[in-house]
Design brief:
Largest sheet: 8 strands, parallel
Radius of gyration: 20 Å
CATH superfamily of the largest domain: Glycoside hydrolase/deacetylase
Number of helices: 14
Number of strands: 12
CATH topology of the largest domain: TIM Barrel
Shape: globular
CATH class of the largest domain: Alpha Beta
Helix content: 40-55%
Number of domains: 2
């Protein structure tokens, strides 16, 4: 989902790489392991107006990351093994975990064969409403609506605004504006607003979900391989920190219980939807522990340090972003240097 502009970040990252500063920082910044975050894996490379392109990487890039990770001497392990190493203080070798959020069908079609070819463990986090066919992938819906129109009307706080979307630049501007507006809304109002927008533009969000997301049978097919861990991702993919505590707890519990009902095994790992500090904080970290999850991952940027053994429900991840599909960035990320600078050398961010 939209974040910092890749065109702004790339020059700084390249300077860090070509200066060799990342190698000098690595002894202090690389930590004991890292957890990669992905969403979609597809051979299709979106161009023009594609505001969600950061969520998609190619199978070729995923293959290169797996190969690069192995060449760097990291063990590719399951979340259960990462949890064991952190719990037991087993830091003799660095590790890497691969995680994918949301349960897109391309995880089965395109990502799974790549992982299988490398005999590499990975985790897919499932929001239980999604394979039920009733997920609201509102950021995808917003992209589809804007892609096909010439203008779009939104009702903001005390005003109605009509935004032109005739060109790619206008479409990108409108998407960024509306996305920020929706992300900052009350969660129920957000869903009502996007539902009204979809109804006005004739877009069926349920059909969109069923087209993009695995069914339970497909999840079962994936889960049958011992390389695969199925994790929880709540029920309806709400920003938990924006919900009352009882409702946030129920979202987390119901999502896991629904997976258990379908797969026969309660998931022991969870990913917080959106995962930034506005969406998951100390309250959610506590709830995840109380519900019995072994680990919980955020989208806070960073690698894993020894200190994270005390913060197993507030783990950071390293995003494999569609805007950064190059081995240059992979090597940088494995060094931990960009995140050390980003976090001002603070190792744990759990506040």
């Amino acid at each position: 989902m939209p974040g910092l502009n890749a065109d702004i970040l790339k020059p700084g990252l390249k300077a860090l790489y070509y200066s060799g500063a990342h190698r000098m920082l690595a002894p202090f910044s690389k930590g004991v392991g890292l957890i990669y975050m992905l969403h979609r894996v597809s051979p299709h490379r979106p161009g023009g107006f594609a505001p969600n392109r950061g969520l998609m990487v190619t199978p070729e890039y995923l293959n290169s990351v797996l190969a690069e990770t192995k060449r760097a001497g990291l063990d590719i392990v399951s979340l259960d093994e990462a949890h064991r190493r952190l719990r037991d203080g087993d830091f003799t070798r660095r590790f890497a975990c691969f995680t994918l959020d949301d349960g897109y069908r391309d995880n089965l079609e395109y990502a799974y064969p790549v992982f299988a070819a490398h005999d590499a463990a990975f985790t897919v986090y499932i929001p239980s409403d999604y394979p039920d066919g009733k997920g609201e992938l509102w950021w995808v819906a917003l992209e589809e609506i804007i892609a096909s129109g010439e203008s779009i009307e939104i009702a903001a706080a005390n005003e109605n605004a009509v935004l032109p979307i005739g060109t790619d630049a206008e479409k990108n501007g409108a998407f960024a504006h509306i996305y920020r507006y929706l992300r900052n809304m009350d969660q129920d109002a957000q869903r009502a607003g996007i539902s009204a927008l979809c109804a006005k533009h004739g877009l069926d969000m349920g059909a969109l979900c069923r087209n993009l997301i695995m069914t339970w049978d497909e999840v079962r097919q994936l889960a049958a391989d011992p390389l695969v861990t199925i994790g929880a991702h709540t029920a309806a993919h709400y920003a938990l920190a924006a919900l009352p505590e009882a409702r946030a707890r129920e979202e987390m519990k119901h999502g896991a219980d629904r997976i258990a009902a379908e797969l026969g095994l309660w998931p022991e790992h969870i990913s917080y939807p959106y995962g930034d500090s506005r969406s998951a904080g100390p309250r959610e970290f506590r709830i995840a522990g109380e519900l019995g999850f072994k680990t919980a991952v955020t989208t806070r940027k960073g690698v894993i340090f020894r200190e994270h053994a005390e913060y197993l429900t507030a783990l950071p991840r390293v995003s494999l972003n569609g805007e950064f599909q190059s081995s240059l960035y992979t090597r940088l990320f494995m060094s931990g240097a960009p995140f050390a600078l980003w976090n001002r050398f603070r190792r744990v961010d759990a506040a």
